[in-house]
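Dear colleague,

Thank you for sharing your sequence with our group. We've completed the structure prediction you requested, and as agreed, I am returning the results in plain text so they can be pasted directly into your records. Please verify that the sequence below matches your submission; if there's any discrepancy, let me know and we will rerun it promptly.
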Amino acid sequence: MKRSLRGILAAWLAVMCALFACGCAGEDKTVTVTFRAVGEEDIVLTVDYGGSVVAPEVPEKIGNEGRWDTDTLQNLTQDTVVTAVYETQGL
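Please find the predicted structure tokens below.
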């Protein structure tokens, strides 16, 4: 009995190691990051779960300086929407 159980455990361990080694264990998870600016088409990027993304350039608006409303685009674990914020330049 001990020998049979050891064989089953060894086979199970070998299968699990093979699955993890090839990245086949479960579904590959991805996260969607949507960059949204009023009057512009959304910029949608897909990254691996727990990954990071570099923010694209903020669409220009005449007389306004833009930035994204967050700087934290690392260790992403859920779909995220990042909104453009604009500030009027000068008077």
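Summary note from our side: The longest strand covers residues 80-88.

Kind regards,
the structure core
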